[in-house]
Design a protein that fits this description.
single chain; alpha+beta; Phosphorylase Kinase, domain 1; 2 domains; elongated
């Protein structure tokens, strides 16, 4: 029997929410939450944030929650069992009820949008995004194939090659300027567009976009590879990945901004979600 203690960091909590942990670490995280209500509450809040982001990716309305799983009914049932128990603030009661759902195994209903299986095509795409980021962001003279001063030509060309209308998101609020982009090769002879951004410290972040009929809708997920993080999602046979050497929290904000901007700019099905 392995009694080795597993240390849990904040990144592990985010990975738990994104369904990216091993079974062993999942058990360690859930044990930690059982022993620390503050951590359980924090995980719940992050899950709600992820759920709000996920909702942006789906045009279909969520399936109604069964009566027995509605939060008010759960709380009422718990109060009936303990009529003499002291009253506690509603938000703590809410967090505690949801925490019991998490540990009890009924979290699946609330997080079904986040528990989609990660397909082989999805894994191949995000691995390609990370590899391309590693290869080209270290380039000094030729980090991009076409510079930002020819943005109109670049976007027209890349859009035609990948079969999808591209737009350049504005990341200046986060300190990143557009450098340019390049055409990349993917599996099955498909093309991908890589757009690169850089801040004043020389740190670079890349956006990879590829279209493939074998892709299927996939909500926002995090992939970590050494010091590189990538947030990726798929919609209408188009895959996106924001990749950078930064914390998951910072990259999450960039990813949310990119999605919202593309949602506003692109004249295709994405704009109707």
């Amino acid at each position: 029997m392995n009694n080795k203690k597993i240390e849990i960091q904040e990144d592990d909590l985010h990975a738990y929410i994104d369904n990216q942990l091993s079974v062993e670490k999942i058990e360690a995280v859930e044990t930690l939450m059982r022993n620390d209500p503050d951590i359980a509450l924090q995980v719940y809040e992050w899950q709600q944030q992820n759920k709000a982001i996920t909702a942006l990716f789906y045009k279909n309305e969520s399936t109604p929650i069964p009566e027995k799983l509605k939060l008010n009914n759960i709380i009422k049932k718990a109060q009936k069992k303990k009529p003499n128990s002291p009253k506690i603030p509603w938000h703590y009661s809410t967090a505690a009820s949801l925490f019991l759902l998490i540990i009890g195994g009924t979290l699946g209903w609330f997080a079904h949008d986040l528990s989609q299986p990660i397909t082989k095509n999805t894994i191949n795409f995000v691995n390609s995004a990370i590899s391309a980021h590693q290869v080209y962001t270290v380039e000094v003279l030729h980090p991009v194939e076409i510079n930002a001063d020819k943005q109109k030509y670049l976007i027209t060309w890349l859009s035609k090659r990948i079969g999808h209308s591209l737009a350049v998101p504005d990341l200046q609020d986060y300190g990143y300027n557009f450098l340019g982009g390049r055409l990349l090769s993917m599996r099955e002879g498909k093309a991908a567009a890589q757009l690169m951004f850089e801040n004043n410290e020389g740190q670079r972040v890349t956006l990879l976009v590829s279209k493939n009929k074998s892709y299927r809708d996939q909500a926002l997920h995090l992939k970590n590879s050494n010091e590189i993080n990538a947030y990726y999602w798929m919609d209408s046979k188009v895959a996106y990945s924001i990749t950078g050497e930064m914390s998951a929290d910072v990259l999450r904000k960039l990813s949310r901004s990119v999605y919202q901007q593309l949602n506003e700019k692109l004249p295709d099905k994405l704009a109707r979600l």
